[in-house]
Amino acid sequence: MLYIGELVRVALSNLNRQGLRSYLTLIGVIIGIAAIVTILSLSDGLNNAVTAQFEKLGTNSIFIFPAATSSGINTNLKTIKDSELKKIKGLPEISEVLAPVMSQGTVEFNRKKAKLSIIGSNPKEAKSWESVGFVELAEGREFESKDVFVALVGADVHEVFGKEIKVRDRIVIEGRSFRIISLTKKTSQSFGGGPNTNNTIFIPEKAFKQIFEQNEPVFALARATSKDNVIKAQEKIERIFERSYGKDQKEFQIQSSQQLLDQVNQVLGLIGLFLVGIAAISCRKHRDNEHHDNGCNGKNQGDWGNESYRSNQ
Hints:
The chain is α+β, with helices and mostly antiparallel strands.
């Protein structure tokens, strides 16, 4: 019977006989295992980051956003009508509705022009954006009711213009001059149809309505009075849109934060499994190629081990 010390000696003897190829195989297996462990760790980290983002939104959040077409692109987005918003806000299960008006606008700064997302917001809505984690001020102040031509600028907007943007600077939006009163911190990409606020400029709703024709939102976030009321509130919101667009309406999707989180985690899980599978197959293929080469040379690892053992009897 071979003892551990003898097994180690036999294994080292095999490695010496087979030379560099065995060491490369060993390194390949180690790298493959390390790759699998790394992929699993990254997948867990990403899942945790996504979960943290949704926790900011709250378990009582319900998203209302335009449905995608079969091609994944909807070039004719429906807006949420004022009458629909009033009905949603009037539901006893709903405590708050955040429905910003949005449009693409030409922005000028540092003698450069660019098309950026512009959101019109009132002071109450601006605070709600902060409460759900979409926006966090890095510098400056919040909107006040008296404000008109002032702007809150997203963290990445300066990259478009190649120059640092500061509080009290001026930018031009659709030919109107705006004074910058605040800058945001960089946040995670938004989920559930919400905008990427890092590349967005917020202006008071009063100014927005003077500049843009688009005065109805395409996205809304409703907050249920409690987690227990989410399903009931969601069903009532769905019925509101069914009355507008028919029972099988496909204009808007209405989903809770938990539903969206489950979908995102499912996709991330599949991606993680796919990447782990690739790493495992690559590792297995490398190992099988080594075994095939050994067979072509007329010996396998078992033969070497037996000979080494017999030579020491």
